[in-house]
């Protein structure tokens, strides 16, 4: 799992350490990836709350994009997508 956020690498490193996270957080301070994937929150310089599953070829295989950070996809839904991708290999 990888998170992509607009914060700088130092802020990300501090968050990883403080919360003892076991996944990578990448910085997209210029919003290049966020814009390329179509998940920019217009006028706010942040991403919309989004969960993307990217397949081994780099294509977005599944996406959830919301407008409220309180709502995210159910973990089991994401796991089903990942399992299906694994079986399609």
UniProtKB/TrEMBL annotation:
InterPro entries: Redoxin, Thioredoxin-like_sf. One of its GO terms (molecular function) is oxidoreductase activity. Residues 2-79 form the Redoxin domain. Pfam families: Redoxin. Gene3D superfamilies: Glutaredoxin (3.40.30.10). This is AhpC/TSA family protein.
């Amino acid at each position: 799992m990888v998170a992509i956020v607009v914060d700088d690498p130092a802020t990300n490193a501090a968050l990883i350490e403080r919360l003892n996270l076991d996944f990578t957080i990448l910085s997209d301070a210029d919003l290049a990836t966020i814009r390329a994937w179509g998940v920019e929150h217009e006028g706010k310089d942040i991403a919309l709350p989004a969960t993307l599953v990217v397949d081994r070829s780099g294509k977005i295989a599944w996406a959830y994009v919301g407008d409220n950070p309180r709502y995210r996809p159910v973990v089991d839904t994401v796991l089903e997508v990942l399992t299906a991708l694994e079986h399609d290999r």
